[in-house]
Design brief:
Structural class of chain A: alpha/beta
Helix content of chain A: 40-55%
Shape of chain B: elongated
Structural class of chain B: mainly alpha
Oligomer: heterodimer
Order of helices and strands of chain A: EHEHEHHEHHEEHHH
Number of strands of chain B: 0
Number of strands of chain A: 6
Strand content of chain A: 5-15%
Radius of gyration of chain B: 15 Å
Radius of gyration of chain A: 20 Å
Chain lengths: 220, 58
């Protein structure tokens, strides 16, 4: 499965969040293609990447509640009528997915009616949902990064793991998250005792889950 | 020793000596995940015993 992360950030070298996420991708050795729009791009090359990708991520900070300008320019440059027709044909074969990875300095709780911002994130990001839908993409839940600099080190570490699970689509169930974690711990050659314990707990969880499903099926 | 305490202590020991940031992040997540899986296992056992209804549909 081909993954493409498109980053829009005018000062990416100075961005703590973007550096943090990029380093995480590097350390986890995830197989992703990363494009930094503000460094310039070749339209045809980018169109080819989009056609080949099954999952696309738009990653950006919110500047006054919308994406940096390079993302809009990219949409105008790349998504010509001819290219959109090609994408719709490609989608017929295999549905592409679009997710947003969005960082911001406001409190997450302020993105709702009745607060200083007064609108939910979903409302503010709805143009991207319309964009995805019009192309025939499946629009997936947004991964949010609120107030990164104010987070504790533990919170930032949890955020990193959640981000990597989002990119690798290992966040779709509690069990999948655990399986991804197990694989990462094994790859990184972590403590065998802890790995064995996690493996044992995952097996027990899966057995109990199946037992409950069987009981429910038996009741129907 | 309670199993939650045991693995938390193991993880804390490993984190204290781990130089690599990514590995420390994995250990932090492991601590969080093991606590949750143990809670879910306990609740699923109660559910099987008919003592608990899983309203969150785990």
């Amino acid at each position: 499965m081909t993954k493409l992360i498109i980053i829009s950030h005018p000062e990416i070298e100075n961005s703590t969040v973007q550096s943090f996420l990029l380093e995480g991708l590097n350390q986890a050795k995830l197989d992703v293609d990363v494009v930094k729009l503000d460094r310039g791009y070749d339209i045809k090359e980018l169109q080819q990447k989009i056609l080949q990708a099954n999952e696309i991520f738009f990653q950006f900070p919110l500047y006054w509640y919308h994406a940096p300008s390079s993302l809009g320019k990219f949409q105008e440059d790349v998504f010509t009528n001819k290219f959109v027709a090609k994408i719709r044909d490609a989608n017929a074969a295999k549905l592409k997915k679009l997710s947003l990875i969005v960082s911001f300095s406001d409190k997450l709780a302020d993105f709702q009616a009745g607060t200083k911002i007064g609108h939910s994130l979903s409302e503010l990001l709805s143009p991207y949902q319309s964009f995805a839908t019009s192309l025939g993409f499946l629009f997936e839940p947004t991964f949010v990064i609120p107030q990164f600099q104010y987070q504790t080190e533990d919170a930032q570490q949890l955020l990193l793991i959640n981000y990597l699970q989002k990119i690798s689509r290992s966040n779709q169930s509690f069990l999948k998250r655990g399986e991804w974690l197990l694989k990462m711990l094994e790859t990184q050659q972590q403590d065998e005792l802890l790995i064995d314990y996690l493996r044992q707990q995952l097996a027990e969880y899966e057995t109990l889950d199946q037992t409950i499903k069987d009981l429910k099926d038996g009741q129907e | 020793m309670d199993k939650n305490n045991w693995f938390s202590e193991q993880i804390a020991n490993d984190k204290a000596t781990e130089q690599d940031y990514f590995n420390r992040a994995l250990l932090t997540y492991l601590d969080f995940y093991l606590k949750e899986i143990n809670q879910r296992i306990e609740q699923k056992n109660h559910q099987i015993d008919g003592e608990l209804w899983n309203h969150e549909e785990w």
